[in-house]
Amino acid sequence: MARRTVLALVLIPLVGLVLAGCGSGGPKHTGRTVTFGSAGAFPPSTIVGTYSARGCTHDANTVVENAHLYYVHSTGAPGPADLYYYDMRFAYAHFLADGCTSGELGEALKSGLTARQQAFLLRNVASNLHQAFLEALNSA
After folding, report:
1. Cα separation of 120 and 69, whole Å?
2. Omega before 80 within 30 of 0, i.e. cis
3. How far apart are CA 129 and CA 132, in angstroms?
4. 35-61 residue pLDDT tens
5. Lowest mean pLDDT among 10-24, 29-43, 91-105, 118-132
6. What is the pTM of this model?
7. Backbone angle region of 87, left / alpha / beta, with phi > 0 → left and psi within -120 to 50 → alpha
8. pLDDT tens across 108-135, in order?
């Protein structure tokens, strides 16, 4: 009888530890606060994010939509292309604040932009966006 009690005292905490670890195997997605530095006399914006798969899909598609408009207005359509560049940066800040992944953005970039548009984007954005978009395209 004492042997069963000792066995139970050892096994119950062990089983509890194993079960507690089962639910934490994947990455946790949480939103965060991002400060978006605007241009000129405009003050920076503070974006408080909240993660959701649906929200990240929306954020990624908004980045791609603005990237497409930036491309179109930089390559022949009437300006101002810089408006769409600003909007793309702001949409990317929302994407970051919502805790979205590079893979989510990469899938949207690959499905929403042609190879030519992707190449243009990588050549014509600031280095931080270049790195983020390149990583996203490589992770998709």
Report:
1. 12
2. yes
3. 5
4. 888 777 778 888 889 999 999 999 999
5. 10-24
6. 0.76
7. alpha
8. 999 999 999 999 999 999 999 999 999 9
Report angle CA 112, 114, 120 to the nearest 5 degrees.
110
Distance CA 132, CA 77 (A): 26
Q: Does residue 87 surpass a pLDDT of 50?
A: yes
Spatial separation of the C-alpha atoms in residues 62 and 85, rounded to whole Å: 12
Please report which residue ranges of 81-140 form alpha helices under DSSP H: 81-97, 102-112, 115-123, 127-139
Residues near 49 by beta carbon (within 8 Å), at least 6 away in sequence: 31, 32, 33, 34, 94, 96, 97, 98, 99
Tokens of 56: 């990240």
Say how many C-beta atoms besides its own lie within 10 A of residue 91's C-beta.
21
Mention every residue, 6+ apart, whose C-beta is less than 8 A from residue 50.
31, 98
Q: What single letter denotes the amino acid at residue 11?
A: L
Q: Over the Cα atoms of the chain, what is R_g?
A: 22
pLDDT of residue 28: 64
- Give Cα 21 distance to the centre of its chain: 26
